[in-house]
Design brief:
6 helices; Cadherin-like_dom; membrane; repeat; Immunoglobulin-like; four-stranded antiparallel sheet; Alpha-Beta Plaits; 254 residues; Cadherin-like_sf; cadherin binding
Length: 254
Amino acid sequence: DPDSGDNGLVLYSLVSGQIDEFDIDEHTGQIFTVSVAGKAGTFNLEVQAADQGTRSLTARTTVSVTVDSSSSSNIVTLVINQKINVVERNRAEVQRVLEDKLEWNIYMVNIYSEESETKARSSTNETRVNIIAFDEAHQEVPAAEVERSLREQRAAIELELEKVFSASVSVAVAEAEAAAASPQLVAAIVLGVLLAATSVAFLAYVLLDLRRKRYTGKQDLVKKVEIVEGIDNPWAADKNGSLKSLEKPEYMNY
C-alpha cells in the first residue's frame, strides 16, 4: 500500500479455513502451523489484508498450504505402468481419479522410479507414487485401509487412468518396503560392536596376563626351591635323622 500513516499500515488476518491449525503474523502476513500433528495435505486458508485508515480498505485471497507428511507410517505406494515423466505431467489428473474413487483427500508425497533417472524417463514403463489419504477431519487414513480400498477399486481406477493417459493402464499396490536404519541407529550399532570388541580384547588381555603371572610365579617358586635345596640348610636333617651342624661351611666364613 503506497499510502502513508494509518492508510499505509496493512494488517493481515485469517478469516476462514482451518484457522485452528494455522496462525498468521498480522504485520508480515507470514503463516505458521499451530496444531497439525498427524495431519498432512493441502489446506485452503482465506487471508485478508486491511489498511488502518478511517475508511479501511480490504482485500482477500485464498492461500493453499501444503503440509508434508513424508515421514508418515501411512504412506502407500502405488505402481503404475507408465513412464515417470508421463505420470508427473498428469499429476493433478491422477490425484483427481484417486480422490474420486477412494472418496478421500489424497496427498501425493512423491513420484519416482527405481531405475536411474535418465533410464526411467526414456524407457522404464513403471512409476511409483507415494500417497497418503486423509478423511474430512484431515486425519491420516491407516495404510491398511487405503490398500484395501485401492484393491477394491482397482478396475475402476485403471479405467479412469486409461482416459487420462490414452493407453492401457495397470495399477498395483506395492509391498511395504523395510524402513532404512536411521543414522542414529547405525551409529549406535557400530558403537555397540566396537565396545563389544574392545571388551573381548580387554578380557583376553587380562586372562593372558593372569596366566603369564601364574606361570612366572611357578617358575620363581621352582627357582627358590632349587636355591634352598642347593645350600647347606641348617634345619635340614641328615640321612640318619639327626640335625646337621649349624656351623657355616668354610667357604661362607669371612
